[in-house]
Prior knowledge:
The complex is a heterodimer. Chain A is mostly helical. Chain A has five helices and no strands. In chain A, helix 2 runs antiparallel to helix 3, helix 2 packs antiparallel against helix 5 (125-140) and helix 4 runs antiparallel to helix 5. Helix content of chain B is 78%, strand content 0%. In chain B, helix 2 packs across helix 12, helix 3 runs parallel beside helix 10 and helix 3 (39-62) runs antiparallel to helix 12. The longest helix of chain B is centred in the N-terminal third of the chain and has 34 residues, at 77-110. Chain B is globular, with a radius of gyration of 20 Å. The N and C termini of chain B lie far apart (51 Å). At the A-B interface, helix 1, helix 2 and helix 3 of A face helix 5, helix 13, helix 14, helix 16 and helix 18 of B.
Amino acid sequence: xxxxxxxxxxxxxxxxxxxxxxxxxxxxxxxxxxxxxxxxxxxxxxxxxxxxxxxxxxxxxxxxxxxxxxxxxxxxxxxxxxxxxxxxxxxxxxxxxxxxxxxxxxxxxxxxxxxxxxxxxxxxxxxxxxxxxxxxxxxxxxxx
Amino acid sequence: xxxxxxxxxxxxxxxxxxxxxxxxxxxxxxxxxxxxxxxxxxxxxxxxxxxxxxxxxxxxxxxxxxxxxxxxxxxxxxxxxxxxxxxxxxxxxxxxxxxxxxxxxxxxxxxxxxxxxxxxxxxxxxxxxxxxxxxxxxxxxxxxxxxxxxxxxxxxxxxxxxxxxxxxxxxxxxxxxxxxxxxxxxxxxxxxxxxxxxxxxxxxxxxxxxxxxxxxxxxxxxxxxxxxxxxxxxxxxxxxxxxxxxxxxxxxxxxxxxxxxxxxxxxxxxxxxxxxxxxxxxxxxxxxxxxxxxxxxxxxxxxxxxxxxxxxxxxxxxxxxxxxxxxxxxxxxxxxxxxxxxxxxxxxxxxxxxxxxxxxxxxxxxxxxxxxxxxxxxxxxxxxxxxxxxxxxxxxxxxxxxxxxxx
Lengths: 144, 407
C-alpha cells in the first residue's frame, strides 16, 4: 500500500519536483564553482598530477622498450604527454613558490626533454630502455 | 533457429555498442583512484540500463511510441521542449566528445595531424550512416566494438584478487569524500546515458518489432547490457591493476590502450585501439541519429533511417547537422576529456526527465495492456528513478567541488 501511495504521489508530482530539484542542483553547482582550493591543496594536487605524468612517461618508455609499440602511437603519446607537462608547468607557476614544487618542476622539465628525444627516435630501443630507467628513477624520487 | 541467431546477433551488437568514450575514461580513472571500490556503481548502472532499455523497447513495440513521443505526451509541451533542447544539446556534446576521441585514435594509428584525423573520421562516419541502412549501421559498429573484449582478457590475465573485487560490488562504509561520490555518479551516468534509450527505442520501430519480438527485446536489453557491464568492470580492474600501483591518473585517451597491450604486445595494442575506435564511432553515430529521432518524434515529423534520405528531409538534416556541428566542436581544440566530463555530468542532470516518462507509460495499463509493468517492476523502476534524481541533483555541485574529478 505504501509503495502504491508513493507511486501515485510520484506520478502526480514528479514532473513538477524533478525540474526545481535539478535547477537547485545546477545553481548549487555554480555556487560551488566559485569556491577555490586552498594553495596547499592546489600544491598537493599539482604534485600528484606531476608524478602521474612522469609515471606515464616511464610506462610508455618501458612498453616501447619491449618492441611491442607502434611508432605512430609512441610519437603521438609522447607529444600528448609533452603538452600535458607544459600545461603543468604553466599552472605550477601560478602557485606560491615552494622547494618541493621547484624540485618537481625540474623533473617535469627533464620529462619534457626525454619525451622530445624519444619521439624523434621511436625505433631506437636501447635509447628507450635507458630513458625508461631514468624516468622510473625520477618517479621514485618524486618530492612528497 | 533464425530467431535464435537474431537474438545472438542482437546481444553481441548490444555488447559491442555498450562502451563509449565516457565509460572508458571514467572507469579507468575510477579504478586508478579507488581500486575495485566502485564496482557497485557499475553494477547499479547496468541494472538501471537493463530496466529502462527493456521498458522503452516494450513501449515502442506495444504502444508504437518512441521515447520522445512519450516525453511529449507525459511531460507536456513546455517541459517536453526543455527536455528535447537539453537532450539534443547533450547529444551534440557527446557526439563531439566521441569524434574528438576517434580523431585521437586515428592520429595514434596513422600519425596524421590531429585535425585531419578528426575530419577524416567525421567524413567516413557520415558516409557510412548515409549509405547504410539502420540494421547494418547497428551491426557494423556493434560487432566491430566486440574487439574491446581484449580489455576483458587482459584484466583476467593480470590476476585480480577476486575476493577484493567481490567486496567492491557492495558499497562499503567510510567513503565520505566528494571525489569518491563524483566518480560513483560519473560511472552510474556513463552507463545510463540517455542517448542509448533514444536510439534503442527508435531502433525497435525502425526494425518493425512486434509483440512476438518482446522476448528478443528482453534478451538483448538484459544479456547485452549485462555483458557490457562485465566489460566495464574489466576496465575498472585494469585501472586498479595497471595504473593505481604506478600512481598514474590516466588523463589521455591513448594511455587507456596500454593495459590491453601490456600482456599481449603489438597486436593487442592495435586491437585495443581499433576496439576503442569502433565504440566511439558507434556512439558518435548513435548520438547524431538520436538527435534526428528526438527532434522528429517531438514535432511529429517523418523519420526513418531505412528509407531514402530525400524522403525524410527534416530527419536527415538534423542528424547531418549534428554530426557537422560536433565535428566543428571537436576541431575547435576543446580537449576530448573536457567534453567527456561535461557530457557525462550534464547527462546525469537530464536523465530523470527522460526516464520518468518511460517509467510512467510502461506502467500504464490502458496503453500497455497485459504488457504493462508489474507492481514490483514499477517499484524497482521508481527506486532507480529516485537514485537517478538524487544523483542528478548532486552531479553538478560535485563536479564543481572536485574541479571535474581532479585527484
